[in-house]
Design goal:
TIM Barrel; 8-stranded parallel barrel; Immunoglobulin-like; 34% helix; alpha/beta; 3 domains
């Protein structure tokens, strides 16, 4: 080790509290994060004015700058030059009325030209590096990832390496002390995402193994069956890995705010709601509780917007709706990519589609070139889109309250241990609700006690705890219908199989003869999972043929969804094709519907939608006659309602891409 060498280079500093760096927001005020329109920029001391000018020119609000202190070994040892650039950038951004945040790597560190250097991260600190079960170090080179150059050394570090963690947190405090508006932490993962490391379930370095033994009493090296979710010791390892990274991000947030209360912490995470979150150990559901925002490098269905078919777009929307449910009042940023050279697609069209989806889901966009974080595929299109978003930001990013929704439950523990069953079922229910234009709300363990809808669906919610059962019993007592599928309720929150299923007993329970049935319905098979897999094979062909009738794989699946439709008490109806998504909300006391049209899109071939014509919106028990529709990238138009016996009907003549309907 080179402990003495490091102590000479990085002395322990007493950091001053933040002093003047241009206009500063009120302490702890992070409202700016909810309306960002992001661009990424490499940062040096010499290009700051250029960054500020371009941001203003293209309506960017929320400037990411990259001069990674912790992820480059030279600046990990000597950060002063980069810190000075961050301070200068912050002052310039504040003078321009903008905000800025700086990128740092989480658990990755690159030594440039390592093949020519005596000192590299790995040579100096081999014990700090993550390892697989056989003891192989997580060290990589230029052939392993596009951001690693030939001759560079790329290592992945254990968050339990105490000396490294102390230095890392000191760097966080120094960065926060510059007055920067945010610290953006990339790649807080266990190394399981490079080729050959996918099934390692790392890390088995001595620090991590010792921490696991101390927390659980288990031996990580020989005391569990890797990848076997029937093994209780392995499930504890899964929980431990997720908890470790969540705690790492929580400490970064605490340390940053100990110096600068106005400094936000943002985590960049690529796994969404799927099994990948379990594999890399970075779960956005848990992490939203300990950071100020998450930037999702999310690519459901296809990596680029230009490559997505309609079914992929529905999956992408479901991912973002779920992130927004996880986030609560915190913002959701999307570092997703639009176009990277597809010959048959105009990059401007791909950008329009990507930002359409993100804004209609209530997420904040990030424009980038290709598959990196900086630049743009079309600056003129960025300018147009970001200007429209800026003009409508209050309508897009004010808190949205679900209107009379069907609740769809997301169980993190069920996903952790039974992802192959839970996630297709969860998506299947939401695909049905989106295709039939029924209001929905994604419900989680954090929000279930506040759910007020008349119907709640538990899709393959295999793991249920005592608190959840208590809340469900209360909901049933208030008259909420609950529908459960598959093996819902058969496991506790540790993944142990139960002798009796209290959930199903609760749902099938009836009151005295002649009284209304108290509970819900139990479906031992999972029709939602069947519907999702059927749609994955057939939805796009039906979209291209403009077949607007819903189809089901079998009569049982149809019966399941027919029951959901019957149980739901619909107050607002939308008549449109299945290829238009709608989110039904109330914003500041006003009914708002957010539309996104994916009809006619073909991955790699066609990025212009077929227009959705004569969309009807029907309000029962309502007499308001005026509404407005704001087309995506267009200006607001007035809609006049038509009365019928117990309500009002509106018609939107055409929806090209999407837009916002507001009841005046």
């Amino acid at each position: 080790m080179l402990k003495k060498y490091l102590q000479k280079i990085i002395p322990v500093l007493v950091l001053p509290m933040l002093t003047g760096c241009g206009p500063s927001p009120d302490p702890g005020n992070f409202e700016w994060m909810k309306t960002v329109r992001i661009s990424g920029n490499p940062l040096t001391a010499d290009n700051i004015e250029e960054i500020i000018h371009k941001a203003g020119e293209t309506h960017v609000f929320g400037i990411e700058v990259d001069n990674d202190i912790t992820g480059r070994y030279d600046s990990f040892l000597q950060p002063d030059e980069k810190l000075a650039a961050i301070r200068k950038m912050t002052e310039a951004a504040h003078r321009a009325g903008n905000r800025t945040f700086v990128y740092i790597a989480g658990l990755e560190c690159i030594t440039a030209n390592a093949d020519k250097k005596e000192h590299t991260f790995l040579k100096d600190h081999p014990d700090w590096v993550q390892r697989n079960r056989e003891g192989k170090a997580a060290v990589f080179g230029g052939k392993d990832a596009f951001w690693i150059k030939e001759g560079d050394e790329d290592v992945w570090i254990s968050p339990f390496a105490e000396e490294w963690r102390a230095i890392f947190m000191e760097h966080v405090r120094k960065i926060a002390a510059t007055g920067i508006d945010g610290i953006y932490v990339d790649i807080p993962y266990w190394m399981t995402h490079f080729e050959g490391w996918e099934n390692t379930w790392a890390s088995f370095d001595e620090y991590t193994v010792a921490a696991f033994r101390e927390q659980t009493g288990n031996d990580a090296v020989s005391g569990m069956r890797l990848g076997d979710f029937s093994d209780a010791a392995f499930r504890r390892w899964v929980d431990f890995r997720i908890g470790a990274l969540t705690d790492f991000m929580a400490e970064i947030n605490r340390e940053a705010k100990s110096v600068n209360p106005d400094c936000a912490v943002i985590a960049e995470i690529y796994p969404g709601i799927d099994f990948e979150a379990v594999r890399v150990g970075a779960d956005v559901y848990r992490m939203y509780e300990v950071v100020d925002a998450i930037a999702h490098e999310y690519s459901a269905g296809a990596y680029m917007a230009s490559d997505r078919d309609p079914f992929d777009w529905f999956d992408y929307m479901i991912g973002m709706y779920t992130f927004r449910a996880f986030a609560g009042e915190k913002p959701t940023w999307m570092l997703s990519y639009s176009w990277d050279g597809e010959k048959n697609i105009d990059p401007a069209d791909a950008m329009e589609n990507l930002f359409l989806a993100q804004t209609m889901a209530g997420a904040n966009p990030w424009d980038a070139r290709g598959h990196v974080m900086s630049g743009s595929n079309n600056n003129d299109k960025r300018k147009q889109i970001y200007q429209w978003i800026g003009e409508n930001e209050k309508k897009l990013y004010a808190p949205r309250k679900s209107l009379n929704p069907v609740g769809v439950y997301f169980s993190p523990q069920s996903r952790d241990y039974f992802a192959d069953q839970t996630i297709p079922s969860f998506r299947g229910v939401l695909h049905y609700l989106l295709q039939t234009h029924l209001p929905f709300e994604i419900v989680t363990p954090r929000t279930i006690s506040r759910f007020s809808g008349s119907l709640l669906v538990l899709p393959e919610t295999r793991c249920i705890g005592k608190k959840e059962l208590t809340v469900l019993d209360s909901l049933l007592g208030k008259g909420t219908q609950v529908v459960a599928t598959g093996e819902a309720g058969w496991y506790d929150l540790s993944g142990n199989r139960q002798r009796a299923n209290r959930l199903q007993t609760m749902l099938m329970k009836q009151l005295l003869p002649g009284e209304k049935m108290r509970g819900g319905f139990v479906w031992p098979e999972c029709p939602a999972r069947k519907f999702y897999r059927f749609g994955k094979k057939t939805f796009d062909q039906r979209a291209y043929a403009a077949q607007n009738e819903l189809q089901f794989p079998d009569s049982i699946t149809k019966k399941f969804f027919d029951i959901i439709a019957v149980l739901f008490n619909e107050q607002i109806a939308v008549k449109a094709s299945p290829y238009l998504t709608v989110q039904f909300t109330e914003v500041n006391g006003t009914v708002c519907l957010y539309f996104a049209n994916f009809k006619g899109l073909k991955g790699k071939k066609q990025a212009k939608q077929l227009p959705e014509e004569n969309v009807e919106i029907i309000f029962r028990n309502n007499q308001k006659m005026t509404a407005r529709f704001i087309p995506y990238l267009g200006k607001s138009i007035e809609l006049k309602g038509q009365r019928f016996q117990n309500g009002v009907r509106y018609e939107i003549p055409v929806i090209e891409k999407g837009g916002i309907f507001r009841l005046e």
